[in-house]
Amino acid sequence: MHPSRRRGALLAVAALAVSAVQFTSPAVADPAAAAVSRCGPLDVAFVLDDTGSMGGAIANLKTGINSIVNDVVTASGGDYQFGLVTFKDNVTIHNNLAPGNAAAVTNYVTNTLAAGGGGGEPEASDEALNTVVNNRAAAGRPQNVDFNGTWRSNAMKFVVLVTDARPGGFDDAHGAVDVANAAQWANDALGKGIKISPVYVPTSPAFTPVITPIMQNYATTTGGVFTQTTATGAGTADAIRKQLSDCRQTDVFMRDQVSDTGVETNPNGTVWNSPDIKVCPGLADCGAGTQPVVGATNYVHVRLNNPGPYGVGTASGVLKVYRTPAGGGTTWNNATNGDWVFIGQQALTVPAGVTVAKIPWANIPGPGHFCLLARWVSATDPMTFAEGPNTALNTKNNNNIAWKNFQTIRGRVLEPVRSWFTLGNATGRDAKTDLVLTAEKPVRGTVVVDLGRELLERWRAGGGQSAGVKQVGETAFQFDPQRAGLFGIPLKPGERHTAELTFTPEAPGEYLTNLVQFVEGEDHGGVAYQVLTDRE
């Protein structure tokens, strides 16, 4: 749930968390402490230059680390993860992102972190960011271990970078490639909803004109805060506290239904027929029922609405779009995308009102029909509920996600036209699924569903229950076009099976049929089939 809806519970959790690790707030309140807001879950990675010239900044950080960590624990309500990485011309990971690890991070900074060595400027700050933002493994890199902590989709995510040096990669030389790499890692962070908030310590003022725009770009690209301390490093800890207090919330949403106002969890019904997603032949707007042209480049148009009920202000982020074959029970995985295939993304700014993202979909495969998934990823608007394998549940819970399964099928009277539906199991356990057909606009004609041998055997093993169907072939069933279903089909976790649909219209007109997969009475996805029939 959003921070505003769980304030009381989190205050109690925060008190317990602070007590457990024995952190104490400052005795006298200061502006940085006052600025700390209720942030909800927080993931914070510190990326620190620990070369010899950083002695003053590190000394200042040591004096303030207890307050910094205490702020995060409190502001997150005890729902936090820390990471800690240092760099010279190599990268050293001391703490991967992990829940509840405040004591370990504080202990390292207080008792072990020290400035020393470095072999001269520049340093590998760009590659240290690459490690943290992109979860880089150590293989083939001057890096001690893998950075394999998980950035959580429902957390506000920060990288705090502290350095006095130009980025130099791993070759100890600053050049155009390092500037380009630094910009790329900023773009990567934007695409993952991670704020980079840099602290520049100007120990060598001659480099300031080069370093400042690079570090400012980290902040402006990702929505972070850029801070410059004194040459002695005084104010480093206060700068970090101020950066981590920046928990302003925006709320961009996509509708699951026309009546959807962005409330989480969505109290309405179907979540797989979003009115805010459609495919058009080009950048110009098109009708809602327009279908992709196989082999061509079309554009996925996604409508973003601002503000929703949980935040205000202009938002920045990345809109990402994915596809699968049409069906239900589609599995999501944050690392691999699960059953969903990435189409493309667009970074954009969303002011108040409606903004339409237009993402090219090149070389559309086929023939076939596809489900489309849209995800808004923003550092100021994380998912409210952590995403799990169940796409339908993720969509219902989070107004940052929208799902569109709609197919237009054109044919002639008495001429069979075919389509497909895929049943899947995204529950993570053995489950029985129901396949239910209903008509929104009366169908004059027949609808036949061919399960194929494997699904037929599964259905029989599950008890062979049905309503409104009759068997018309070895594996095929004719469904009553108004309402019918096959019930109790057992599926194992992660399985997907495709059934073939055949529509044979008996009169010209437009028919709209929904085929939906239910698991224990819960909608796990469906497809709206719009059958447009001409005369013979």
Automatic annotation (TrEMBL):
Give the residue range of the signal peptide.
1-29
Q: Which PROSITE patterns match?
A: TAT, VWFA
Q: Offer one Pfam family short name for this entry.
A: VWA_4
Keywords attached to this entry: Secreted, Signal
| InterPro entries in alphabetical order | HMCN1-like_VWA (IPR056861), TAT_signal (IPR006311), VWF_A (IPR002035), vWFA_dom_sf (IPR036465)
Q: Can you give the residue ranges of the VWFA domain? A: 43-258
Location in the cell reads: Secreted
The keyword Secreted belongs to this UniProt entry's keyword annotation:
yes
> What is the protein named?
VWFA domain-containing protein
